Amino acid sequence: MNYSIDKIAENINAKRLGDAEAQISFILTDSRSLCFPEETLFFALRSERNDGHHYIDELYHRGVRNFVVEQLPDAFSSIYKQANFLQVDNSLLALQQLTTWHRSAFTIPIVGITGSNGKTMVKEWLSQLLSFDHNVTRSPKSYNSQIGVPLSVWLLNESSEIGIIEAGISKRGEMEALQKIIQPTIGVLTSLGAAHQENFSSIEEKCKEKLLLFKDTQALVYQMDDAIAAKCIEDFSYDGTLLGWSEKNKDVALFVEKISKDTTTSTIEYCWQTATKGKFTLPFIDDASIQNCITCAAISLYLGMKPETLAERMPMLEPVAMRLEVKEGQHGCTLINDSYNSDINSLDIALDFMNRRPDQQKRARTLILSDILQSGQTEKQLYCDVAELVQKRGIKKFIGIGSALMRQQEAFDGVEERYFFENVADFINSKVFNSLADEVILLKGARSFGFDQLTELLVKKVHETVLEVNLNAVVDNLNWYRSFLKPETKLVCMIKADAYGAGAVEIAKTLEEHRVDYLAVAVADEGATLRRNGIKSNIMIMNPEMSSFKTLFDYELEPEIYSFRLLDALIKAAEKEGITGYPVHIKFDTGMHRLGFNPRTDIAQLIEKLRHQNALIPRSVFSHFVGSDNNDFDSFSAEQFKLFDEGSKQLQSAFSHRILRHIDNSAGIEHFPERQLDMCRLGLGLYGINPRNNEIINNVSTLKTTILQMRNVPKGETVGYSRRGVIEKDSVIAAIPIGYADGLNRKLGNRNCYCLVNGQKADYVGNICMDVALIDVTGIDCKEGDSVEIFGDNLPVTILSNVLETIPYEVLTTVSNRVKRVYFQD
Ligand SMILES: *Cc1c(COP(=O)(O)O)cnc(C)c1O
Fold first, then answer.
1. Among protein residues, the one whose CA lies closest to atom 15 of ligand 1
2. Cα of 737 vs its chain's centroid, Å
3. Ligand 1 atom 12: the closest Cα is on which residue?
4. Domains of the chain and any CATH numbers
5. Cofactors per UniProt (predicted)?
6. What global pTM score does this model have?
7. If you measure from the C-alpha of residue 247 to the centroid of ligand 1, how many angstroms do you get, rounded to a whole number?
8. How many C-beta atoms lie closer than 10 Å to residue 588's C-beta?
């Protein structure tokens, strides 16, 4: 669908400057996702941390001609001659207004989904159930925010027959805006869960806000057995049809009579509208999936699906994997594996993700794609669209797998290299497969095509022990700490020690996307590695060595200065290179007595030296708390702060430019938000551990391995070196490929700690070896090849650090380099 720029200007009440003709099909809010410049309308949005207006110049040069702005760029009519600027008071409101208007052109059923858990799952499964006979348009991934919802609604087009849109909120007042944009005709409330409440005083309050989505819907599907939901709905004077489902109450729209579970499937027997009996089987056994499927069943039945049809389709549901995984591949390849349901919107997101990955060697991009199932479009049109996207996103090599792609190969004539295969087996036996090397490969295939097997063959088989790093959790932790800060407070993210073990390059890339102000590493080489991998953010070097000045200057790394010796040497080195105004960060010692100037006795001389040179310029001044994690040290922290406050003010008063002051670390941000000054330094908290109570905020890293071998060991035998592991009863012992050389501390052995095998605790028995450890799996249902969690999502790293009488920092940073880091994003 497209609209003329005139029509759009009129609809968002904009003042139009420029008179070029334009037809708009795409809207863009993030300059990095640009794909079709000529037909794109860019909305310059302002947020607390960023301003879309800064990207206008770049986008203009990349071919974008249409912009919605709050403020016109300087001299726009002479610089951006061919552009149209639509000036409005608030770009976000304009975006919402435009999509609200777009939405009102449709009279089709629109399902609006909200809730705390399961929104995306319900959206995907409902779409799978309905796509057999309807053209369904749904939100991509979990686009459910104030910006994501308008972008989702924009996807509705002439051929849409049903829309499914997800809505998520984080504070009061947001749902009203989303309701206007979505205008759902059918409402769905998924599980409320106990997710933490951020800006709400209680779950009830949050639930009430969520219900606002449903105010004009004809019907509302929800689970009645959830007492809070039921109560809130009762209080919410609702005019439409209530479609509750329950396991307890017969007198409801959908009464769930019986749930029986097998090893891999569950069967639900139900009664619809107290009249029609039915039954279906689904390929899942966990409670969350069962609940979400029942919710989908209620909506489908309401939309008129016959119980027999439902029973046919339910067993075919595909699991919703929302991960985009990055793995190291064979022959110098990087693999990006997207097992998310295949459709063109998620393909676009995956291609965009691929293009944003750091890549030092600038390798060519390859896409391996299976046929796209259930698209609702004609085959020809679908693959023309896919081919266009593939070219726009810079794919050099395209490999299509499946009979539909075989039929539609002509559409891909414009791609440099292209190959088509009937199935995965044909591809694996081909020359094309064997010649994959030094490329970045995106694998996107429907499960039924056997892409799992393909991935298996392409990933580099190294050590079977991996550290999985959840990049979304990093962002969630970042936002959790940001919530303590004023919008204008700057943030340094500490990614020293390879980002506390998580891998500095990928973490830096993620943080850069979320616009943190500074990244900080310990030594210059770490900074140089980041630069070589394309990191452009400001980088602070906490412990610069005297021998690394050249690296600092070459890579624009900003050193911390903690002594006169370092200061003098750096001034000299900079002067020799003819450098002026090089930014440095001054460290005060206020109590740690580790590194730093004494803010009382050194300050006069420090000011004197800094003022009598122009090679360096103090960009910031900081100090570090000794014990912000512990209330016992509160009075000492107060002393430290006072000393810092006085010294840093004195330094500032000697200069006319602004010198940023900072002292709070992770614990400080939470405990002393009033001491946030101009900037804070976030470390451990970013990686999910709250240093104040050792609790996990959002877990980032999971160290995993697999069972190599299992054996029965009779009572009285011993296992491992030095016969330390005495077996006291007949036992089953498993060997796992992780040892102290991987960072598994020897002190955990001899039953001092445990790992998890299929969710159950298995003690380490005997001494931990260099590359292998032995665990007791007696009574645990497991087999060779099963996964073992050393620490992570289900076993907090702090359990290990407590046993080791150390801090989680040490456990995280000692996971050795030979353990592969695997990154994923939901
Ligand atoms: C490591 C470090 C931090 C971060 O500390 P956390 O306790 O991990 O938040 C802050 N400032 C300095 C100077 C550091 O070296």
1. 542
2. 29
3. 624
4. 3-92 (3.40.1390.10), 106-316 (3.40.1190.10), 330-458 (3.90.190.20), 466-687 (3.20.20.10), 701-795 (2.40.37.10)
5. pyridoxal 5'-phosphate
6. 0.66
7. 51
8. 27
